[in-house]
């Protein structure tokens, strides 16, 4: 179980950092060789990282939508 500091650090990651770590987690899971406990921990970390990436992408989408709406009002 992660403590608040670990969760806060994960939430503070930039998109590229979270994406790169997520790629590494997936690579390790696909390679295999971990115990069940290690695999579960990797899976959980991957889920956390995916949430961070999703939040960044949703924020970027909202900014794009706002910019498009603003430019549409100016026309």
UniProtKB/TrEMBL annotation:
InterPro entries: Exonuc_VII_S, Exonuc_VII_ssu_sf. It comes from the Bacteria. It is an enzyme of class 3 (hydrolase). It is found in: Cytoplasm. Belongs to the XseB family. Bidirectionally degrades single-stranded DNA into large acid-insoluble oligonucleotides, which are then degraded further into small acid-soluble oligonucleotides. This is Exodeoxyribonuclease 7 small subunit. It comes from Streptomyces luteireticuli.
